[in-house]
Amino acid sequence: MGGDLYILDLDDMQQSAVDLGDPTRLVFDYVRRIGDLLDVMPAGPLRVLHVGGAAMTLPRYVAATRPRSAQIVLEPATEVVERVRAEAPLPPRSGIKVRPVDGETGILAVREGSQDVVVLDAFAGGRVPESLTSAGFVEQVGRVLAPDGMFVANLVDRPPYPRVRAFVAAVRALGDVAVGAEPATLKGRREGNLVVASGEVPAGAFGEPSPLAYRVFRGRAVADAFGGGKAAT
């Protein structure tokens, strides 16, 4: 940790980065793109369900940019939650409620149609658990989302994108689909983050027009690039 920047290392990788002095500063590129998606949601407080918490970067961002938002974080790693509470406490009266339960179990207790946004950013061993990208979990997300709600997921993949293709096929049932990725990830130079938004995806998603060195796929372009076929075995 340098200055006000708090870095949480898990599974031999930097899992979260939080600027404790300015929670609106999103350090990791994919987190900034999720922030862009949240920014174009209708003005005012949001009801947000976070599947995965780590250092609570995005819940802190929402609390700072949209005061009085009601947020639920599903984070089963209680030792991580306690570490973060000790080293980088949440601000008082943040409206952030952390539940020590995994996403697949915790979402069952969330009321139908109660969430404006569901954010999936959960990792185990450096991977998003397959149970959280399954058609069954996506169905639960659709149940808890409000009619104009949006589902945002951070996935790690590389060409030919077997995980993203399978996920896109599942989330098409929620409505519109948009995908954002760095060019290096698209060119297969390295495995990287792809952010998939589905449901009612607002205009201006990912800070469109696309930031320099970032690619955004919408409409037909999603089908052309990520088709939605089954994951390769």
What does this structure look like?
It is a single chain. With about 230 residues, the protein is of the alpha/beta class. It has eight helices and ten strands. Strands 5-4-3-6-7-9-8-10 form an eight-stranded mixed beta sheet, with helices on both faces. Strands 1-2 form a two-stranded antiparallel ribbon. Helix 1 packs parallel to helix 2 (about 55-65).
How many helices? 8
Compute the average pLDDT.
89
General form? globular
Strand order of the largest sheet: 5-4-3-6-7-9-8-10
> How would you spell out the order of helices and strands?
EEHEHEHEHEHEHEHEEH
Oligomeric category? single chain
Structural class: alpha/beta
The residue fraction in helices comes out at 25-40%
Euclidean distance between termini CA atoms? 40 Å
Report Rg: 16 Å
The largest β sheet comes out as: 8 strands, mixed
**Portion in strands:** 25-35%
Show unreliable segments.
229-233
Total strands: the figure is 10
